[in-house]
Structures are given as C-alpha cells and as structure tokens.
TrEMBL record:
Keyword NAD: no
GO BP term (any one): defense response to bacterium
InterPro entries: Colicin/pyocin_DNase_dom_sf (IPR037146), His-Me_finger_sf (IPR044925), Pyocin_killer (IPR003060), Pyosin/cloacin_T_dom (IPR016128), Pyosin/cloacin_T_dom_sf (IPR036302)
TM stretches of this protein: none
Organism phylogeny: Bacteria, Pseudomonadati, Pseudomonadota, Gammaproteobacteria, Enterobacterales
Protein name: Colicin/pyosin nuclease family protein
Gene3D superfamilies: Colicin/pyocin, DNase domain
Family of this protein: Belongs to the colicin/pyosin nuclease family.
Pfam families in alphabetical order: Col-Pyo_DNase, Pyocin_S
Assigned keywords, A-Z: Antibiotic, Antimicrobial, Bacteriocin, Endonuclease, Hydrolase, Nuclease, Plasmid
A Gene Ontology molecular function term of the record: endonuclease activity
Domain Pyosin/cloacin translocation: 24-163
Length: 297
C-alpha cells in the first residue's frame, strides 16, 4: 500500500460498454483518452467506510488508456501510476489468466512473491449479473481518478477499468482562517480569483476531520445555510439546496451547459501539492469563471 494512493477497485471493461479493443489500443498508443458516460470513484463516507460510487456524468468524461507491460522477472502485467506531489508512484500488478492458482483457491501469491499487494490474480474478472444500487443526487464538481488498462492478446486478459483514490478523496482536517466578506459574497464568484471562504465558516469547520473533500464540501454548504448573515444573500430554493449539502445555483449567464452550480476551486491544484482542506486554498467560482481559470493555467 502506498500512502495517498489506495487502488481498491478494478472492474471489467465489459461492464461499462467501453469502445472496442482496437479503439482502446489506438488511444493507448496515441496517449489520448476515451469517453465514458459512467465513471467510478472511491470515496470515504462519513462512517469511515470506503464506498465505490458509479456516477452517470452530465457529460461523457475522458478517461486515460494505458498498455500494461509484462514484468519478465515476476510474470505479472504492470502499469506504474506516475508520482504526484507528496504521493509516490505505485505499480498496478495484474496476473496473467494462466497464473498459478487460476483454477484453484484465490490467493495473493503468484509466479514470484511481490512486496506490493496483488490486485487481481487468476482467471478473468466477470461482470456481475445484477447489482445493488443506491441512487443519490449527483454532487457538484466531482473529480475522478481512474484509468483503463489494456493487455496484449497473449495475456488472455480483457481491458480493466481501475479506480484509485487521490488526496482529494482521503481523510483530512480543515485548516485556514478564511476572509471577512460583505453583503454580496457570491458577487465575487464570477470574477478574478473568485469568492473566498468566509471567516465565520472557517471558524466553524476548522479542526474538524472529514473522510474526503466531498464530505467537507457538504458540511461547508450546510454551514453557509445555517449562517444568518450569509443565508439572507440566497433565495429560499438555494438555502434548501445548501441545507442538503449541495451548492447554490449560479446566475444563468454564469452557467455552462449542465454546469449550473457554484463550484469550489483549489487555487493551488491538488496535483501540484495544494492543500485539500485548507480553506485559504479554496475559492467559490461560477462554472464560467472556473472554466476560464483553468484555461489560464
């Protein structure tokens, strides 16, 4: 296990209706992505349990495709996720279909013992015929940490969809002081760096630990709804949304397609080492301003 990167779920590509193998191989060779209308996330819920969430995105998301490479010393097929700030590289190992133990009890052993956890060994994963599902409102501004692995024909393996956790989806404690805001707090969300986290909200959340950034974001909007000075700046419909932990609706002219909610933006990107739950690294932006902000980076 590598701190900051928990690869806890691999699913057969067949379950997601991926493009055919030729298209996936082409994407891997050209280092491009493929579209997936349904994507997965690993999120620690408020009870401290790691959930696998399958999300039907508003717009089909682009997912990276990579070729697994045979490790001659171990006999496993592997792919190394690159290191990001404060998170070291980690190698995903997948055993060939004819590995030792494929026709017997599933074990974590293989051709050569490895110091890392083996994520799949033995026969090909098959999609379940039926699954239990819980439908919940889609959270705003979701991000995904996933990849599609493809294998050569001689491996006997079909494409796999891999989900792993980023620092954004790890437990963390809220820090930072926030800023004093006036009577038009959300007015700043459409311009420049966006609207800062109000100091009274920072005071309420500081020191609290959440299982993921999503959890802290829900608490953030609930705190805004409960604050008398801030809540009076919103409509009744927006207040009800925030009481449920969801972001308020942005002005129509600041919406972009189906992105209609105010979004929380990390000024220093998490992938560059930005603090996930430091309120001084977070600004509220309209979708239009959020998109323009990322274009400038």
């Amino acid at each position: 296990m590598v701190p900051g990167r928990d690869i806890s779920s691999m699913m057969p590509g067949d379950a997601f209706g991926l493009p055919d193998t030729a298209a996936l191989n082409k994407a891997a060779d050209q280092k491009t992505s493929v579209s997936m209308p349904v994507r997965g996330r690993l999120v620690m819920n408020d009870s401290g349990i790691l959930d696998v969430q399958l999300v039907k995105t508003n717009t089909a998301g682009a997912v990276k495709v990579a070729r697994a490479v045979l490790d001659k010393e171990t006999g496993y097929w592997g792919y190394t996720l690159p290191a990001v700030a404060d998170v070291p590289a980690q190698t995903i190992f997948v055993s060939p279909a004819d590995a030792l133990g494929a026709n017997g009890p599933l074990t974590l052993s293989g051709p050569v013992p490895l110091p890392e956890r083996i994520l799949h060994t033995g026969d090909q994963i098959s999609a379940p015929q039926a699954t239990d599902k819980t439908v919940t409102p889609v959270a705003d501004d979701l991000d995904f940490d996933d990849i599609i692995l493809v294998f050569p024909p001689e491996s006997g393996l079909k494409p796999l969809y891999v989900m792993y956790r980023s620092p954004r989806n790890m437990p963390g404690t809220v820090s930072g002081k926030g800023q004093n805001v006036g009577n038009n707090w959300m007015g700043g969300a459409s311009t420049g760096d966006g609207a800062p986290v109000p100091s009274q909200i920072a005071d309420k959340l500081r020191g609290k630990t959440f299982g993921s950034f999503d959890s802290s974001r829900r608490a953030f909007w609930k705190a805004v709804a409960d604050d008398s000075a801030l809540s009076k700046q919103f409509s009744e419909a927006d207040i009800n949304q925030m009481k449920a932990g969801r972001a308020p609706t942005a002005d129509f002219l600041e919406s972009v397609g189906k992105r209609v909610k105010t979004e929380l933006h990390h000024e220093k990107e998490i992938s560059q080492g930005g603090a996930v739950m430091d309120v001084d690294n977070i600004k509220a932006l309209t979708p239009k301003n959020h998109i323009e902000t990322h274009k400038g980076k």
